[in-house]
Design brief:
The protein is mainly α. The chain folds into two domains: 144 residues, Helix Hairpins, CATH 1.10.287; 60 residues, no CATH class. The protein is built from five helices and four strands. Strands 2-1-4-3 form a four-stranded mixed sheet. The radius of gyration is 43 Å and the shape is rod-shaped.
Length: 255
């Protein structure tokens, strides 16, 4: 195999690893942004629940304050009824008393309604506060983990780039330029193996003469279909446990 191709295979492996690490580095801020966005959403929901609970309690106090006023008015009207001189005055006082009593019943019904609404609101607020506290700790833990992973990834990237630079220094500029051009054009794959006279990248067959020349490994060769740099790896020799002498003997004896 041509030395340039041998080194470029290693460069390509490093490039794949660099791409993987860079994707992880890019994904970490997005992940943090997503969990922080979810946290903000939950904080706003809790604030809305708290505001609804405060409004409920405020309405309840307001309605509760109306009842004593109606009761005082009823007491005053009853006193005035005793001083009524005509039936019309008596009925007028009685009508006002009935109105105040009706308002008191309405207030009591409204208080019961508000109390019924406040209970689930209080439960929601308490549950949300507890969940939010847990979520805040989890978010901080994930942010710390992301910072540590990002730092580790940056260290790995620096090491990979150093290895890559060392390999590139041993490749002829012409071969490296070709690799870079093809890699950018072919989604990161600039070098491909030829197996069974077929390019494993584009899966198209190679001409017999081209395949023979590629097996020699005398020069950098490019797939005539996709343009990638090709290399040929001889199939490993598989031994069946039978030595040469035994094979010869078996062949001569027919056993």
């Amino acid at each position: 195999m041509v030395a340039d191709v041998k080194f470029l295979i290693q460069v390509q492996d490093i490039d794949k690893r660099i791409d993987e690490v860079q994707r992880e580095v890019s994904a970490l801020p997005k992940h943090i942004a997503e969990i922080e966005k979810a946290l903000v959403s939950h904080v706003r929901k809790l604030e809305a629940d708290r505001a609804a609970l405060v409004a409920n309690q405020k309405d309840r106090k307001k309605v509760e304050a109306e009842t004593p006023a109606h009761e005082q008015k009823i007491a005053k009207l009853k006193t005035q009824m005793l001083e009524a001189k005509t039936n019309e005055q008596f009925r007028a006082f009685q009508s006002e008393i009935e109105f105040c009593e009706k308002e008191i019943r309405k207030a009591e019904d409204r208080i019961l309604e508000l109390m019924g609404q406040s209970e689930p609101l209080e439960q929601n607020v308490q549950a949300a506060e507890k969940a939010l506290e847990t979520e805040k700790k989890q978010v901080e833990a994930e942010k710390q983990e992301a910072r540590e992973r990002s730092a580790a990834d940056q260290k790995v990237l620096a090491e990979l780039k150093a290895q890559r630079q060392q390999l590139i220094s041993q490749v002829k500029p012409k071969s490296y330029t070709a690799y870079e051009r093809i890699r950018k054009k072919r989604r990161g794959i600039g070098v491909a193996e030829a197996v069974d006279e077929t390019c494993t990248a584009c899966h198209l067959a190679l001409r017999p003469q081209f395949s023979q020349d590629l097996r020699k490994g005398d020069e950098v060769m490019f797939c005539e279909s996709c343009g990638r740099i090709l290399y040929y790896s001889p199939a490993p020799i598989v031994f069946d446990g039978v030595g040469p002498e035994q094979s010869s003997e078996t062949a001569s004896t027919g056993k």
